[in-house]
Amino acid sequence: MNTTYFVAPGSIVRRIWGTADTVLFIFAGAAAEFALNKAVDWLYFTGRLPADPLGRLFSTVDYARRIVFADRAGAERAIDAMAAIHAAVEAKRGRPIPAGAYRDVLFLLIAYSIRAFEVLERPLTGPEREEIVAVFCRVGQRMGIPGLPTGYADWQAARAAHLAAHLVPSPYTADLYRQYRRHLGPLRYPLLRAVQGLVVPPTVRALLHLGTGAAVRPALAAYRRTRQLALSQWAKSTLLPAAYRARIHALDGAPAAEAALPPPTAARCPMGH
Asked: Per the database record, which ranges form the ER-bound oxygenase mpaB/mpaB'/Rubber oxygenase catalytic domain (predicted)?
């Protein structure tokens, strides 16, 4: 019997989400943009995100990889569980998460999947960009998110509108960055900001007073020349503390099996709840 996958085995999405360095760059960018989103109060509702921002990162990675590498039924179970967790949080708080907040999350995953791969590897082709948009929009459709784009050009327009309308510095922004600093320490925190400056759009860079990533550009150039060698895997060895190193190395390649991923529970909500 042929297995049907949510994401085809040869998909560029699998290549992106099966490479630890690329995944870390995706979440460096997402961590910056999360901090500016007007709906960031939802990420603070249970207090789990500020208490353990690195743990939240890996929770989100677990969900994304479950969807990307599982068969269709397994991926749909993960998406349905994710939707149920959000519904429970909405019920507990007594109001719905805005549809725009869901779209923001999908849009930034699309944006940083594209940007991280292109920064670390090569420019994507038109069909590859279309495929990235299509995969994440299928996730959104399964979750019942309205107003999703129909293709890459449509997504670009919607993404620009979201960046213009949905980002604003707030006390949550400052607090989340204090947590990043506290959990990463004085050496890794500047590296995070440098990587963020490299991958985020100009709007985010300006609002967070990030540089252009000049500090990491020499390492990036070396990575591109030697990325097949062990010494080139610099991001996963330097961006996060040693306590997370085994989990980071496990991001290279597909998960061993769907069962190896943690069960979807409220403690592992990918939006930080």
From this structure: 44-225
Residue 8 Cα distances to 3, 21, 72, 124, angstroms: 10, 22, 10, 17
Residue of 59, 44, 38, 54 whose CA lies nearest to 192: 54
Kindly tell me the sign of the dihedral angle through the C-alpha atoms of 135, 115, 103, 90.
Answer: positive
Residue 261: pLDDT over 50: no
What are the Cα distances from residue 218, in Å, to 121, 224, 234? Answer: 15, 10, 12
User: Cβ distance 167 to 207 under 8 Å?
Assistant: yes
> What is the rounded distance in angstroms from the CA atom of residue 104 to the CA atom of residue 160?
11
Which sequence spans correspond to the domains of the chain? 12-268
Q: Are 110 and 132 in contact (CB under 8 A)?
A: yes
Residue recorded with tokens 């292109």: 118
Which residues, in sequence order, are bridge partners of residue 71? 5
Is 59's pLDDT higher than 80? no
Q: Model confidence over 85-141: pLDDT tens digits?
A: 878 877 877 777 788 888 988 999 999 999 999 999 999 999 999 999 999 999 999
What are the C-alpha distances in Å from 90 to residues 63, 87, 206, 256? 19, 5, 32, 33
